[in-house]
Amino acid sequence: MSDQPAAAPTAEPVSAPAPAAAPAAEKAPESQPEQKPEEPAASTEQKTEQSSNDTPATENKDTTTMETPAAEESKPAETPANDNKENDGKEAQAEKPAYLKNNAALSQFFDRLPEILKNAEYSEMWGVTLQEDSAHVPTINILIKYLRANEGNVKLAEEQLVKALKWRKTMDSVALAESGVYDAGKFAGLGYLTNYTGADGKETVVTWNIYGAVKDLGHAFGDLDEFIKWRVALMELAVKDLKLAEATTVIDYDGEDPYQMIQVHDYLNVSFLRMNPKVKAATKKTIDVFTTGYPELLREKFFVNVPAIMGWMFTAMKVFLSKNTTRKFHPITNGANLAREFPGLVDQFPAAYGGKSSDLQGTARTVNLTSEAPKEAPKEEPKDAPKEAGEAPKEQPQEESKESTKTETTETPATTAA
User: The whole model's pTM is what?
Assistant: First the structure.
């Protein structure tokens, strides 16, 4: 007896699903109303069949549901691949050195380097082979110099770098310094290079341009291309001494730059009243070349033996040039006061400039000159003879310049890079 009540409840639930199925049947009977009364009389087998018929539909739905995850499972296989690319990009960004991550402009400039090298078809700059390696310090330092020269403007920095690389390729500037030979009759005594080491071990590279030594303007500046090659060769010697290719520390973008030189332009007995056309052309060309090809290599420039009356020119420069440029210019009326600007190097500076060392001809280096160079020495002796002034080294350039009282400046004090 206890079993029968147990069976009865079981039968009720079986009939219970029928009403649940009825609503589903009510939707179908809209087109077949006659089947509605037969539904209650439907046999268990029919219900079973109906259930079995419903089951495939459910299974199909389930199958579709199952297939969707399957498809999704294949997509996740692709998604990680995409994610990996994104992650690779993020990881690459994360792997960038701090000096790139912390300077968006520099990072962008570096990312443009492959295209820059492709456009220029040349990769050598100041003895450094530019590399597409963010860890290559010499490359980064050169990019920093070009970026700083353009006040952080990546587009302008890129244009200037491409132009400079193309120019170096055409000029073959490295060869000009290493194997070029220049006319001693034109350039002997006109340019020098010195290296002074301070007590702290730091080296100061100084280039000297003795414009009072020019004897014949037509001869020295008549061939503009030859003059530019000589001037570039002297500059390349100085750049080599900066040892940019050996750099192991990235320049502080907003700080001091240890890879810069000092330039001294001596205008003793040089006339500022008029400009010879040949000198003017040489000046313009030199400024153009040096501004493009040697940015941010100048720490300070001293214009010595400049007439006091010309002081207004330096004041006027501040109107046309950036503060970053004009702050590097230092006019000095008396060249003998130059050494005071370098208290730790007084013993090494030439006596003519307030130091305690020999003159430039005896201590400095210069570019390769023709065999005519020794012929210049005898001409200097008569000028050394008058020792009454007590400063033989200083009298030399004075006497040289007296031979040509019409000697004029090859560069105005507004020169920024030459």
Answer: 0.67
